[in-house]
Amino acid sequence: MTAVLSQTQYETVVGLEVHVQLKTASKLFCACANHFGDKPNQNTCPVCLALPGVLPVLNEQALNFAVRLGLALNCQIASRSKFDRKQYFYPDLPKAYQISQFDQPVCENGYLMLSNGKKVRILRAHMEEDAGKLVHSGADGLAGSDYSLVDLNRAGTPLVEIVSLPDISSGEEAQEYMTQIRNIVRYLDVCDGNLEEGSMRCDANVSIRPVGQIELGVKTEVKNMNSFKAVRRAVESEVERQIQLVESGQRVVQESRLWNDATGTTITMRSKEEAHDYRYFPEPDLRPLTLDPAWVESIRKELPQLPAQRLEKLTKTFGLSEYDAGILVEFKELGDFFEATAAICQNYKAITNWLMGDITAALKTEKWTLDQTKLTPQALAELINLVDATTISNAIAKKLLPELISAGGSPEALVKEKGMAQVSDEAAIRAMIQPILDANPQQLTDYRAGKDKLFGFFVGQVMKASQGAVNPEMLNQILKAMLAGP
Ligand SMILES: [Zn+2]
């Protein structure tokens, strides 16, 4: 190609392969605990150690989770599915093959909708077992190590691999797609959804092509992204690298590349010439799966509210902004609390403000989750109602919050007990203002001489003296009148 194209004349093409670790009690084909952080090789047995003569038995809970996930990803659930052996040699794989699914995955042909209206098609979501883990003696991985140790606690734990078609066309879309999957697995309660801790992993197939070209360019597979932001940055950096290659007359080579978060670049991991031929064949030790459509339907009926449904409900039914709704969707606990409060209190904006403002701030300070506090949706609704009825000011409500969080109780009872009710009685307010005017004759003279700005000073003094317990609207009115003079 002799013509030099500018950056905007290239199109980014990305497909994502996402591994989701299912949080079942036991492993995929044996009764060992599926638990992270135990002593090395504690959760192993003859099946996941691949001793001779053992047989795998499918974990029904894992199949149930996979079907739930497939349904939430708008997939068709196969009525017939099977497992296959994927052969490769690596020290963390005791059988020297992985039980996976090749041509008959449990879930196929799904999709996710991005916020910009784009549909990302999902080719398949299949079940497979995870490998073990190598622990290298050197701090910087295999290269600097004298020896490596094998921990097989993870060997045989259940995964679902979700494979998208190359419908994603920017790093931002890749990040949103990943975030949506994270939200879905958390709402379904089938996975922790922590990219940072590895309970979700992602490989990105990245290529570029001139805008308008239908044929796909040569792709690279980018690995090792440990955060949602890293997914976006890795795609952007890899696209940039490929454009520079093509612009300088070189070619993109098909290979696996490793994302380095510190340098913000990708480096060659292995070229495709070294790629494996996995020699898939049907797993003879497991019978093909026959999934009863009635069973699948029963799972569909029991699906909880999904993130997309909550987003629609929050924006359409409750009239929240896309931004506010997005936060309440992402932080499920806040969203649950919002919906429970909104069922008994109609001031939706106030609920949102409390949850995203003072309540979130208090949780951060105490390093608590909402369910570790004593705050209930009833208490929040009551608090908002007290402010709306001008029984207490917003300032007083904020003062009550820490106690509601740490000790619980009813805001109404607390207000009565502490005598915090807002003063809305004209005579009482006048009686509060007079001593302030008496104590500040100079400011009073200046105000009457035209220094309007001093109004705020007087408001502040009254609020301070009354500890915020004065109805602010009435205070404004009465103060103005009294300042103007008799
Ligand atoms: Zn086992």
The residue ranges in which pLDDT falls below 50 over 5 or more consecutive positions are none
Number of strands: 16
Give the spatial strand order of the biggest sheet.
2-6-7-10-1-11-12-13-14
Content-based structural category: alpha+beta
Radius of gyration using CA atoms only? 31 Å
What is the helix tally?
15
Task: Round the mean pLDDT to the nearest integer and report it.
Answer: 92
Number of domains: 3
**Shape estimate:** elongated
Terminal CA distance: 88 Å
How would you sum up this structure in a few lines?
By secondary structure, the chain is α+β, with helices and mostly antiparallel strands.
Describe what this molecule looks like in 3D.
The chain is an alpha+beta fold and about 475 residues long. It folds into 3 domains: about 10-295, no CATH class; about 305-420, no CATH class; about 425-485, Arc Repressor Mutant, subunit A, CATH 1.10.10. The protein has 15 helices and 16 strands. The protein has helices spanning about 60-70, 170-190, 230-245, 295-300, 305-315, 320-330, 330-340, 350-365, 375-390, 395-405, 410-420, 425-440, 440-450, 455-465, 470-485; strands at about 10-20, 75, 80, 85, 95-100, 105-115, 120-130, 135, 150, 160-165, 200-210, 220-225, 255-260, 265-270, 280, 290. Strands 2-6-7-10-1-11-12-13-14 form a 9-stranded mixed sheet, covered by helices on one side. A 3-stranded antiparallel sheet has the order 5-4-15, with no helix packed on it. Strands 3-16 form a two-stranded antiparallel sheet. β13 and β14 form a beta hairpin. α2 packs antiparallel against α3 and α7 (about 330-340) crosses α9. The longest helix has 20 residues, at about 230-245. The N and C termini lie far apart (about 90 Å). The model has no long low-confidence stretch (mean pLDDT about 90). Zinc ion binds near residues 30, 47 and 156.
